[in-house]
């Protein structure tokens, strides 16, 4: 074993995802020397954000106004409070972070990002539509702004700034440095220690070895934990699973790489930081097995439009307002009461063509590659987009048939399909189709479809015109078996608005800061119980900026 490597810096940043990159760039801008470390090989710079769809929450943006959307800070506040449902003493700082973040999203956020060279797809998406009333959870208006370039486009300007600082000697980027403890001196955090792992040529997101070849100690005036959440560690997810969401699933897909293991939150807690709201989490219920997996159990989420008929494992339609894209956590809680880890979409090819998008940068080559001709062909042309078609052709969760009887038989042939009541599926499909034949209806989903198409963005690329699923001209029929995909921790290290980690007594842990998912995207849980979407990347940007500036000011 080599001798312990000892280094010194002004600011140490642990974790090189989006929050860590932003924090590093801000500390460098403030004139500080920074060491940025991560346990993975350098191929993973950008962390989870690189894989994302690149959605950002903005309030009263030019993109919204051009689409005829009237948004405002008071409306966004109404939606956030109705969604977060803050109800604990521990929500003091998360609530303050939410207030500050909403001001940011309605204020300088867009101009700041535009100044970094970022731009946005002109059609604003409408995620988490709610359906419970004006003061309930969900977005009253479309606010999901897709970055031109998706996740890599969000990461790029901050990675560029960090690598420029590296070339000038102001930043040292150290891959394969795994932290095992924080260095404490008289109650203050003065850096970190850990193990140096063997070099690895693993591609982005792929598992890397844990062979130890040395040790390190890094002394720092300020240390920022930006190491992500627990979504890659399903044992920890089940351990934290709250009773309000039912029993933990036996089988889950992994929406994040295996290295998202939550280890640094435990390390920070061992050094005096308070970790709060660990039972709050965000997982998706529209997951597919990836046809080209990168990490173990790799799941891809469907970003559905609102038209698919959603059935539980037995074939019973989900209750109002648990429609695709309306209430992720409400749907998860309902499905956990059914006794099964899967559910079903039943839909037509016409709906797939208009409404199906797969989450992630790699599943959207048109947006990620900033390829306008490809975007026009894939989003506005006939047929499903190529990545979606690949899943229709090769996906183990997809059944495509010409008739409903054959579709039901295909569903029953899949693992878990034996629970399906074919007669119930037929009743649900035929009853739904009868409701479409008039301009008026008692079916709330159909009424909401017609309402959604009043928004130009939905009518253009996200919501098919209501039609009978059994209309031969809309076929063939499609069924999709949906699994649960782990994604985000909504709780984390409690922080003040400068990103300083707080201890059990409420005072700051001197020298320690946190950002990104490790801090619950700000304060230890800025989202409360659930999110309005487009707020994870934004939370990394905002909390990383605060922690980088706060750490620089503390040195």
Automatic annotation (TrEMBL):
SUPFAM superfamilies: FAD/NAD(P)-binding domain. Residues 10-537 form the FAD-dependent oxidoreductase 2 FAD-binding domain. It holds the Pfam family FAD_binding_2. Keywords: Flavoprotein, Oxidoreductase. It comes from the Bacteria. Coiled coil: none annotated. PANTHER family: 3-KETOSTEROID-DELTA-1-DEHYDROGENASE, KSDD-LIKE STEROID DEHYDROGENASE RV0785. This is FAD-binding dehydrogenase.
């Amino acid at each position: 074993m080599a001798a312990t490597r000892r280094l010194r810096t002004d600011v140490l940043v642990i974790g090189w995802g989006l929050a860590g990159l932003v924090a590093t760039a801000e500390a460098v801008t403030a004139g500080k020397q920074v060491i940025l470390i991560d346990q993975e090989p350098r191929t993973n710079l950008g962390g989870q954000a690189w894989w994302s769809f690149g959605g950002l929450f903005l309030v009263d943006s030019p993109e919204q106004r051009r689409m005829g959307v009237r948004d405002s800070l008071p409306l966004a506040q109404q939606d956030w409070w109705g969604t977060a449902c803050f109800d604990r003493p521990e929500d003091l700082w998360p609530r303050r972070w939410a207030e500050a973040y909403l001001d940011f999203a309605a204020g300088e956020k867009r101009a700041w990002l535009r100044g970094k060279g970022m731009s946005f797809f002109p059609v604003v998406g409408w995620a988490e539509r709610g359906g419970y009333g004006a003061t309930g959870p969900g977005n009253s208006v479309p606010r999901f702004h897709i970055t031109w370039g998706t996740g890599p486009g969000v990461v790029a300007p901050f990675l560029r700034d960090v690598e420029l600082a590296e070339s000038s000697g102001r930043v040292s980027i150290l891959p394969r440095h795994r932290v095992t403890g924080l260095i404490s001196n008289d109650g203050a955090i003065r850096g970190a220690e850990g193990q140096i792992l063997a070099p690895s040529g693993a591609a982005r997101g792929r598992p890397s070895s844990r062979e130890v070849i040395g040790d390190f100690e890094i002394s720092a005036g300020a240390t920022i934990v930006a190491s992500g959440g627990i979504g890659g560690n399903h044992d920890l997810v089940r351990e934290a699973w709250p009773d309000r969401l039912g029993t933990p699933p036996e089988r889950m897909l992994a929406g994040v790489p295996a290295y998202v293991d939550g280890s640094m939150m435990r390390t920070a807690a061992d050094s005096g930081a308070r970790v709060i709201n660990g039972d709050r989490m965000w997982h998706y219920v529209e997951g597919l097995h990836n046809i080209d997996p990168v990490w173990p159990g790799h799941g891809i989420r469907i970003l559905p439009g609102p038209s698919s008929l959603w059935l539980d494992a037995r074939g019973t339609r989900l209750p109002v307002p648990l429609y695709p894209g309306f209430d992720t956590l409400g749907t998860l809680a309902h499905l956990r009461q059914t006794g099964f880890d899967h559910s079903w979409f039943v839909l037509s090819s016409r709906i797939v063509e208009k409404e199906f998008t797969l989450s992630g940068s790699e599943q959207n080559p048109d947006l990620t590659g900033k390829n306008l001709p490809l975007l026009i062909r894939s989003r506005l042309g006939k047929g499903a987009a190529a990545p979606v078609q690949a899943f229709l052709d090769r996906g183990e969760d997809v059944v495509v048939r010409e008739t409903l009887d054959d579709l039901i038989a295909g569903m029953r042939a899949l693992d878990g399909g034996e629970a399906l009541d074919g007669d119930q599926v037929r009743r649900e499909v035929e009853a739904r189709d009868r409701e479409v034949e008039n301009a008026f209806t008692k079916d709330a989903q159909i009424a909401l479809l017609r309402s959604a198409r009043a928004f130009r963005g939905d009518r253009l690329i996200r919501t098919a015109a209501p039609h009978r699923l059994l209309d031969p001209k809309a076929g063939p029929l499609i069924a999709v078996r949906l699994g649960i995909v782990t994604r985000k921790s909504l709780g984390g290290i409690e922080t003040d608005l400068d990103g300083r980690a707080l201890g059990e007594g409420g005072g700051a842990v001197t020298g320690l800061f946190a950002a990104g998912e490790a801090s619950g995207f700000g304060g230890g849980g800025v989202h409360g119980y659930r999110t309005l979407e487009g707020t994870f990347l934004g939370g990394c940007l905002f909390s990383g900026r605060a922690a980088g500036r706060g750490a620089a000011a503390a040195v």
